[in-house]
Structures are given as structure tokens and as C-alpha cells.
TrEMBL record:
InterPro entries: ConA-like_dom_sf, DUF1349. The lineage of its organism: Bacteria, Bacillati, Actinomycetota, Actinomycetes, Micrococcales. Signal peptide: none annotated. It comes from the Bacteria. SUPFAM superfamilies: Concanavalin A-like lectins/glucanases (SSF49899). This is DUF1349 domain-containing protein.
């Protein structure tokens, strides 16, 4: 199977956003204030109110989401979401945390973990998150504009799970956060880690 540009109508929202409008540029989405995905670790709460537009995601495939936004407030976030259920999911992308844009991922198997690295120069630019799935794991890569791919994370994910994947936006601390998703592509998974 070759590259496939997915239409925005292909997916189903995990939680409906304030708005989602297809424009000449892409899909412009406004998040609900308080939307997020997190389970237990350190903070003690469970949030299962993310806005993720999901389609089935098979072993041997990859998904690439390109988007742009003005990340300004604590925990504004966008990227890719993979979901098997309320206790098994992964979000990968960028998040405004502690005064700077951060690139990272949250991997959740009952409890969430979190890893980030600062990328303040990526704000207001075209960011692409690519997630490849094999029969034991996923590999997350990211880039801004046409710069080289960066390895973000290799994380376990069982091949026998039914997974949905697609664009993600959350706004845990404010109203009015918007992201424009520019493209949604399904393609062959990466065969090499390096």
C-alpha cells in the first residue's frame, strides 16, 4: 500500500472539540478548555477528554500529521494520538510547558509517563509528527518545516491491539486555543530506527 492522504472526514473524534472547520488550508480546530489526556502519575488525576480524530492504525503502517499553532499558554498541545482504550494510549507532539515549547511524548499503560525536550524555535511553524508501528512497538519522529527528522521515542505497543490514530489537540488550562492541521498521511512504517 502506498502513501494515502486521509480526508478529515475519515476520522471519529474521541471528544468533540469546540469547533472543527475544513478550510482551504486544512482542518482548523478549537479545543475545549480543560481538555487533556493523562492517567495518575505524579499529578494524581485522570483526564480522558482529549480531542483526537482517529482512524484504524495497522501494524506495518505509519501516520504523519502536519500542523501549525501559536502555543502560548501552559500545556497547549497538538500532535498525534494513538488509542487502544482508556488505559492504553500514546500522545506525541509538542506542548507548551514551563514557558517554552517542548517536543515529547506521553506513553500510557495504566499510568502515564512523560518525556520532553525544548524546541522554542518551532513555535508558529509547520510541525510534522510521524509515528510508525511494528508488531511490538511504535517509533515517533518529528521535524519542523523541511528539516531532518528527529527521533523522539521508541515505545512498546503490542501488535495484537486494535489501535486508532490521528491528529490531537488539547488545551488543559485555557479557552480559545486553536490548531490548524495541514495534512494527514498514512504510509509504510519506517523499517530502520537510525
Amino acid at each position: 500500500m502506498t502513501d494515502r492522504l486521509l480526508p478529515w472526514s475519515a476520522g471519529t473524534w474521541t471528544t468533540e472539540p469546540v469547533s472543527a472547520e475544513v478550510t482551504s488550508v486544512g482542518l482548523e480546530v478549537e479545543a475545549v478548555e480543560g481538555s487533556d489526556a493523562w492517567r495518575h502519575t505524579s499529578y494524581g488525576f485522570v483526564h480522558d477528554t482529549e480531542h483526537a480524530l482517529l482512524v484504524p492504525f495497522a501494524v506495518g503502517r505509519a501516520v504523519e500529521i502536519t500542523f501549525t499553532a501559536a502555543f502560548r499558554e501552559q500545556f497547549d498541545q497538538a500532535g498525534v494520538f494513538l488509542r487502544a482504550g482508556e488505559e492504553t494510549w500514546i500522545k506525541a507532539g509538542v506542548e507548551f510547558a514551563d514557558g517554552a515549547l517542548q517536543l515529547g511524548a506521553v506513553v500510557t499503560h495504566t499510568n502515564s509517563d512523560w518525556s520532553v525536550a525544548p524546541v522554542p524555535e518551532w513555535n508558529d511553524r509547520n510541525i510534522t509528527i510521524r509515528v510508525s508501528r511494528d508488531d511490538t512497538s511504535v517509533t515517533v519522529r518529528a521535524r519542523v518545516d523541511a528539516e531532518p527528522w528527529r527521533l523522539v521515542r521508541v515505545a512498546p505497543l503490542a501488535g495484537n491491539l486494535d489501535i486508532g490514530a490521528g491528529p490531537l489537540i488539547c488545551a488543559p488550562t485555557r479557552a480559545g486555543f486553536r490548531t490548524t492541521f495541514l495534512s494527514w498521511v498514512e504510509t509504510a512504517a519506517d523499517t530502520d530506527l537510525h
